[in-house]
User: Fold these one by one.
Assistant:
Number 1:
Amino acid sequence: MGFYQRWRKWFILPLVLAGVGAELLAAASIRGQEIEAVSPVEYGSFVDNQGMPIEARLNPTYRQRRSQPFQKQNDLPDVPQLPQSPRRNPIPSRRSIAIADIQVRFVDEDGQPTPGNTRPYIITREFDLQPGDVYRPEVAQQGLERVTELDSVEDATLSLQQTNQPNQIVMIVNVVEDSSFNVTAFPSSSRAKGIYGVLRLEEENLGGNNQNLALELEAGEDTLGFEVSFTDPWIAGDPLRTGYSLAVFNQRSPSEVFIGGDREVDLPNGETPWVHRLGGSGELFRPLGGNWQAGVGVSYQRVSIRDQAFTDQVQPVDEFGNPLSLSDRGQDDLLTVNLSAVQDNRDDTDYPSQGSNVRVGMDQSVPVGEADIIFNRVSGSYTQYVPMELFGFTSGDQTLVFNLQGGTVIGDLPAYEAFSLGGGSSVRGYQSGEVGAGRSYLQATAEYRFPVFRDLRLNNIPIKLD
C-alpha cells in the first residue's frame, strides 16, 4: 500500500438537529472544534479546518488497516492444496494434520524472496495456532486477517508444506511488507489559525516490532506546535494484547472558542487570545470481545492564555474583565484520568458504507495547581451506516449516515474545554462553534454520501491527498 492511496471526494446532504446546554460561559461566545468522539479534542491533537483530529486521518495506529483489493487472496482452503511430487506423500486430511512449525517468508510483490524488516514473531503471534496444534483453516484465516491489518504488512498469504512425517505440515506465512517510513505534508486553513501547513514524519515499524514513532509539526499564520508520539500496539508477551501509547506536545494558536459568535473575545490590549498547551499523555488499551476496545489513560497539560505565540506574559481576563482561565494568573494545570471504549463494526474505516461505530468516554480531572480544577466529563457517539442508492451520479458506495452524540460536564468548566457545535463536520452551514457552546450538548444528524471521484493515484510519488 505505502503511499498509494485511494481518494474520494464526497457530496453530503445533511439534515441536522442540534442543541446546546443553556448555560453558556460568560467569558465569551464559546467556539471550538466538533465533538464527535469521547472528548472535545484529545489532548495533544492537531485538528484540521473541520475540527477533526489530524492523526485520526494520518496515523494508522489510530485505526484499522483499510481494505485492499488483493486481500481476497487470503482465503484458505478447507483441505490444503499443495503441489504433488512423486518423492512426497500426499497431505492427509486436515483432521489429522499437525503443525510441525510456523515460518515467515518475506517476498516482494512478484512473489520472489526478499529480506524482511519485521521480526518473525510479530507475524506468528497473530495466529492462535502453535507448533503441535492440529491445523484448523478457520483459525488460520482469522490469524491471517490480523496479519494483513498490521501497519508493516501490505499483503499476506498462507501456504502449507509437508514434512517427512506423513501427518505433519509446516505452515508458511508469505508476507509482502509495506513501506514503513512515511512523510506526509499538506496545507490547510481555519478561521482561527489562518493558512497553515502540517508535516508528519512517521516510522511505522520501529525496530521491526510494528511500533510507531511519529513527529508532527504544525506552523502557519497564527499557529505553531509539535507533537511526538510513540505507540506499541501489543506489549510483547502479554496474552491480552495490551498496547500503550505515549505523547508529548506543545501547541500555540488562537482558539475558535474565542472567535466569532455574537462578539469576538479580545484581550485588554486588543489582541486575540492565544491558547498555549504544553503537556503529555499516556494510555493503555486492549481489545475486548464483540469488537470492543477499551482504554485507560492519564493526561497532563499546562494551559495558559497569551496574546501571541512567543511571549512570557499571560492574560487572565478579556477586555471586559471576564476570566479566561480558572486561576487568577491566566494559567491552569489540567490533570485528567481518561476512560474510553470503542466498538467498530464498519466494513471500512476510511470509507464505510455499512455497519456501526460506538464511542463512549469519561474524563475525570484531578485538582492540581492553583486552579484546583475538578470536573467529570462524559460523552458518547453512535453512528449507523446504511447502504442506499438513491441517485446514479457515479459508481461506488452511496450511504445514509445517521449519527447521535452528546455530552455533559459536571463541575468546573474552563472556557477552553467547552463543547461547541457548528462547522463542516458538525452542523453544516455554520462555521465552527457558531451554533453555540456550553457544558452540555445533544446533536443528531442524517447525511447522504456519494463519491464524485475515486481511486485517484499518483504513481511512485509519495503524496497523500486529504
Note: Residues 1-14, 21-93, 459-466 have pLDDT under 50 and may be disordered.
Number 2:
Amino acid sequence: MVELLQWGRAGRAELQGQAVAGRHIAVLVQKHEQGRLIQESLRAAGVAGARQGQDSVFASAEAEDLERILLAIAEPGNDGRLRAALATPLWGKDARELEDMRLNDTLETAVWERVDAYRRRWERDGCMAMFRQWLQGEQVMGRMLLWSDGERRMTNLLHLVELLHQEEQAQGPGREALLRWFARQRQAPVGSEEHLLRLESDADLVQILTIHSAKGLQFPIVFCPFLWSDEPGRKDAGPVICHDPDDPLTLLADFGSPRQEALRQIAREEEAAERRRLLYVALTRAQYRLVLHLPEGLGQQSPLAGLLGGGGKDFSWRVALEGLAAAAGDAVAVVSLDDRAEAPRWTGNTAPEKVRAASFTRHLHMGWRVGSFTALSSGGRGERPDYDDTIPAPDPLSGPGPVAFPRGAQAGICLHSILQRWNPQRGEEDLLVHIDTALQRYGFSTQWRQDLRQWLPAVAATPLWQG
C-alpha cells in the first residue's frame, strides 16, 4: 500500500486522471480487532487510516481519562482523585513531576489553585467553558497532537465534551447529575448513532471497515489481508444456536438436548454458508484493483481455499493462484512480498504547497438601515422566472406505496440499516426509533415515517420460501 501511494505521488499510478491517494483505498477486515491491528500497522508506516465501525466513543481510553479529570475538578480537595487525573495521558504529568509536587508545597499549591479555578468556571459558565479553559491552561492540544495517534485522541476528547455539553443543556446545570450520566454511559457504552466514533480527519485517509459494513459499497482499490483466516466463529462446546431443520424460520438455542450434536453440525454448515457469503462481498467490492494477502501454510480450510480448488494440508496458495493467473491473463498477478529488513514508510508530501490569504479590497458600508423587500428588489430587471414551474410532474405510475420511496443505493442502505437493527420482538416503538435515526442519518424526509412503519413489518413477515 505504501508503494502504491508513493507511485501515485510520483505520477506512476492514476485512476481516471487522478493520482492514487489514500481516499481511493479501502481495507476490509472480518472483525473490529483486525481493523484496530491494521490501523496501528498503517500508523507505524506513516499512513493515515480511518476505522469505521460501531465502537462507542464512551468505550475509548479518552473517556476513562476524561472521567478522572472531571471528578478531580469537581472535588479539588480530594488528593487521590487529583493525582489520578494528573497522571492521565490527557493531563500529562509523569511520576517525577508528581513526586516533585509532593515534596514542594509551592508547586502543589499552584496546581491546586488552577484546578479550583476550573471548578469555579464550571459552576459559573458550564462544562464547555471550563473545558476550553482547561484545554488552553494545560496545553493539552499541542501535547496530544505530537503523538502518532494524537488526531484520533483529540477527536475523541472533543466529541466527548460535545456530548457532555448537550446533556448539560438538556438537564440543566449540576455537576453531580452530569457526572452520574457520564458514568452510566461509560459502564454501558451502547447508545445512539451520535455516540459512535467519528472520523478524525477529512484528509486523504485509507478507509478501514468490516466486510459487513462494506455491503452495497464499492471502492477503487481494496485490500483484504485476512481472507485466508480459517478460524471458526462458533465453538465445538456449549450451547448451539441454529435454525430449526423442521421450521427454517425458527431460531433454536439448544443447551443440551439429545439432538444437540446434530444441531451443532447444522450450525457449522450455517456458519460456513455465511462465511462464503462474506467472501463474495469482499471479493466484489473493488472497482479497479483487489489485493489479497495469503500466507503460505495457513488458511487451508478457509472458504477462499475451497473456492480455489479445495484445501487440506497439501494445499498451496501459490500453486492455486498461479493456475488462476495463467487462465486469467493480465487480470491476475501473483507476487511474493520482498524479504526486506524494514518495510517502506510513507512520508506524505515533503514539500507542502505554499498558500497566501486572498486580499480584500471592497469597501463595506457599516451603517445600519431598515429596508423592505420592495426596496431590495427595485433594481431588478423585470420578472424573475418561477423555477417551481420547471419541476417535472410525478410519474403517474408511482402512486402511494413502497414504489414511491426514493430509489438508489442510499435509499437501499437506509432501509437495510433499519431492518438490520430493528428487533420485531420489541414492538413498534423500537421500529420507530430506528426509522427516525435512519431517515435523519441518510437525509430522507420524515414524511416517510408512517409509510415505513406500515411497509417494513410487512416485509419482515413475508415468507422467504414455501414448504
Note: The chain is about 45% helix and 10% strand.
Number 3:
Amino acid sequence: MQIRTKFALLFILIATSIVITFSVIIYALYSNDQKKEFYSRLKAKALTTARLYSKDVKEINYKLLKVIDKNSVNSFPDERVVLYNILGLKVYSSPDDSNIAFLPPELLSNIKLHQEYYSNNNGNAVLGLVYKGSSDRLIVVASGYDKYGNDSLSFLAKTLIVACFITVIIIGLIGFFFSEQALKPIREMVRQVENISASNLNLRVKTKNKKDEIARLAINFNEMLNRIQQSFEMQKSFVSNASHELRTPLTAMTGELEVALLNDGSPIEYKEILYSVLDDVKSLNNLTNGLIELNRANMDVSFFKKYPVRMDELMWQSRSELLKRHPDYSVSIIIGNFPDDENKLIINGNHILKTALINLMDNACKFSPDRQVHVSFNVSDGLITLAFTDHGIGIPAEDLKNIFQPFYRAGNAQNFSGHGIGLSLTNRIIQLHGGNMSIESVENDHTTVTIVLPAGK
C-alpha cells in the first residue's frame, strides 16, 4: 500500500471516529433532554389532575374534572391519569378504566417508599407519586407515550447517519487530495533520484522550498551525492594514477631485462643492469607500501583503533628510524614550550602517526640541497604543534592548492624520486587524529609544514 493511501485512510479513520463520537454524544444529550421534558409534562399533568380532584380546589367537581381532562389541548397519545387513595383503591381515572380498580401492591409500596416512581421505556412512560393535599393524600399514577419525542429522536438519528455518511465521503475526498499534495514533492524527488546513476552523479535533486522537512531531506541527499561523487572521482583518479605509477617501473624493468637478453655483455654490464632493476624494484616496493598505507588511512574511522601515544617519544623514534634509512640526512629538533604535566604530551593516536612524521621529515630533507630539516615542538592550550621547516626548492604558489591530492606532484619536483603519495597520506593521518595540517612555502627559499594535534588522554 502506498504511503499516500495510508495517510488518506488514516485521516478518514480519525475524522470518521470524531464525527461518529460527536454524533453519538449529540443523540444521547438530545434523547436525555427529551426524556426530561416528557417527565416534566407528565408530572405537571399528574399534579394538576390531583390538585383539581382534591378538596384544595372547591369549585371543581368530579364531572367538571372529566370535562377538563377530555378537552385538554396538552394531552399526549395513550395519556392516562389514575388517582388512588392511600390504601391503593382507585378513586378517579381519566379516561375511565374500570379494569384497574386497585394499584398493584409492589408499585404501591415503591411509590410510598420513594414518594415518586418513574420509568421510561422507548417513550412509554409511567409516573407515580404521592400527592399531599391540605386535607387528603392521593397516589397519582400518570402514563403516556411520547410520540413527539420519539419521532424527533428518530428524525435526528436518520439525519446524523446521513450527515456522517456525507461527511465521511467529503473527508475521504479531502484526505486523498491533501495526501496527494503533501506527498507530491516526495514523488518528484523519487523521480529525480531514479534518474541518478553511476554515470551521471553530477545530477542533483532540485528543491523549491528551502525550509520544510522535505527540502532538508533533499539537501542532505544532495550533500551525500557530493560525497559519493567525490569518492568516485577520487577512486577513478587513484586507479588511473596508481596504474600509471605501477606501469613506469615495470616498463623500465622489462626494457632493461630485454636489452640484457639481446646483448652478450660483460659481468660488469650485467651487474649494472641488475643494480638498475633493483632500484626499480625498490621504487615499486615503496609505491606499493605507500598505496597500502594510503588505503589504511582512508579506511572507516570505526576500524581505526587508538591508544595513548606520547608525542615527544614518537617524534624521536621517527627521527631515529629516518636517519637509519638515510644517514646523510640531518634532522634537528627544537623543543619550545614543554609542559610539566606529562599527560599533556599524550594523544589518542595510532602507530600510523609515525608514518606521517617520517614522511614530513623525509620530504623536507629530500627536496633540500643541504638535506636538513628543523623541527620545532611546542605544547600550549591543550594542543601539540609541530613545524617542519626546510630551505629547499619550495612549492610554487599555483601548486599549493592541489598538493594534498594523491599522486599530485609540484612542477619543480618532477626530477626528484617519488610518487606524490606522501603528503596526501600524511594529511589523512593527521585528520584521523583530529588535527589539521597546513603548508606555507616560498619557491626556491623555504617550506614550513605545520601540524596541530589535540593533546591529553
Note: Residues 112 and 402 are 107 Å apart (CA to CA).
Number 4:
Amino acid sequence: MKANWQDSEQWFQALFEHNPNAAIVFDEETRRIESINRAAKILFNYREEIFRTLTLSDIIDTDPPRLCDAELRREIRAFRTMAGAVFTSEIAEGKFVFNGQSKILWIVREMDNQSDVEALLRERKVQEYRSLVENIAIGVTLIGRDMRILTLNRQMRCWYPRIDFSRQPLCYQAFNDPPGEKICTYCPVIQTLRDGRVHEAVAEIPSERSVRYFRIVASPVVDKEGNIRAAIEMVEDISEQRAAERQIRTLSQQLLTAQENERLMISNELHDSVAQDLSTMKISLALTLGESSTLPDDVRKTLTDMSSILSRTIRTVRNLSYDLRPPGLKEIGLIETLGSYCDEFAEDAGIHAEFHSTGLKNRAMNPFLEINIYRLVQEGLNNIRKHAEARRAVIFLIGAYPNVILRIEDDGKGFDVAAREQAGFSEKRMGLSSMRERVNLLMGKMSIRSRPGEGTRIFIRFPFRDGLSDLSEI
C-alpha cells in the first residue's frame, strides 16, 4: 500500500516537473511562490532558489487578479521575466488544499501570436455573457423560427419548473397553463421573426391557478447574411408592479369619488339653502320697495342697490353650484349636459362653443366615467378662456368601440407644447397637467397638437365602461 502511494506521488511529481507549460504553485493568502517546474524556470529565467523567494507581484506586469473560489478559471495575463521582458500568457487556474492551507496552481501557456490572444479574449467574453444571461433576474429564452424553445436561462426554468425544456417544446404550449393550441395573439416573437425588428408587449399569462403579468421584448438573431435565424425573448415579471398600479388607481378613484361627493354636498347646500335664502331676501326687499311709498329717496336707493347686489350674488352662487356639480348629469345624461354647458360657456365667455357627439346615444355609461369626461371638457374650456385668446372652440365626443374619443379644439394663439409642459409646474398652469392625470386614471392616452398662431387640438382616448362596470376595472 505504501509502495503504491509512493509510486503515485512520484508519478504526479514527474507529471508536474515535465509539463511542457510553466507550472507555478503559490499560497492563496500570502501569494508567495512555493513550487515551480522546469518550464517555469526557463520561461521566467529564474533559478529555483530565487523563484521561491518571490510573490506573484514580482512576476506579473499588472496587479494580480482577485482570486475566486471556482475550481478552474482561464484568463490572460502579462508577465515579466527576470530581465524585465514582458510577454502575454494564458493562465489555467486550479485550487487545492495542502496541510490545511489553500494553494493555487497556475499553468502558464505562452501565447505565440495575436490571433491566439484574440481568440481567448472572445471565448472569455462569451463565457462572461453566458454567465450574465444565466444569472440575470430577467427571463431570457432563445426561440427558433418554428416557435420551439432552443434554450433558456435559470430564471425561466425557475418560473416554469415542471416543463421539460430538453425536448424543445413549443413556446405557446410551455408558457401557458393550460397549454395553448396556437401562437398567442399578442406574441412579439412572431412579429420579430417576420420583420426582423424589436417588438414589445405586456401579456397576462395563466400560471398555476393565478395570472402573471409579463413585459416581453423580442429581438432578432441574424446570421452573417442577414437572415433571421431565431429570436431572443426577454421577459420581466411585472405582476407586483401591476398590483401596485391597480391599488394606486383604486385609491385615486376613491379619492376622486369622495371629492365629487363632497362637491355634490356643497353644491346642494349652495343651491337649496344659500341661494334660496338669498332669493327670499331679494323678494322681501322687492315687497318693501313696492308697498312703502313713504320711504326716503336715499333709503329707497340703498335698498335698490342691495337688491341688485343680491341678484348678482344669487347668480354667482348658482353658477358656483353648477360648476361644483352639473345639475342635469344624472337626470338628462352626459350628452345633453355637455351641450348645455357649452352654450352657457359661450354666453359667459364670449367664445363661440360647439358640441358634437356621435356613437354614444342611448349608451349607459359608468357614472365615474361620465363625471370625469365632464371635468375634462370643463378644464379644457377653462384653459381656452384663460390662455387661448380664441374666438371659437369645438368639442367632439365620439363612441368608437371599444374606446371613447374626446377632442377639444380652438382657433386661439397656440403654444409650444414641449416648452409649456416643462414650465407648467413653475408657472402654476396646472390645467393640462391635471387633465393628463385624469386621463391616466381612466387608463387613457392624451396628446396635444399646437403651434404658435395655429390654435390647439387636444386628443383623448380611453376605454369605454358601461353603467354596470366596476370602478376598479377602470
Note: The CA atoms of residues 193 and 314 lie 69 Å apart.
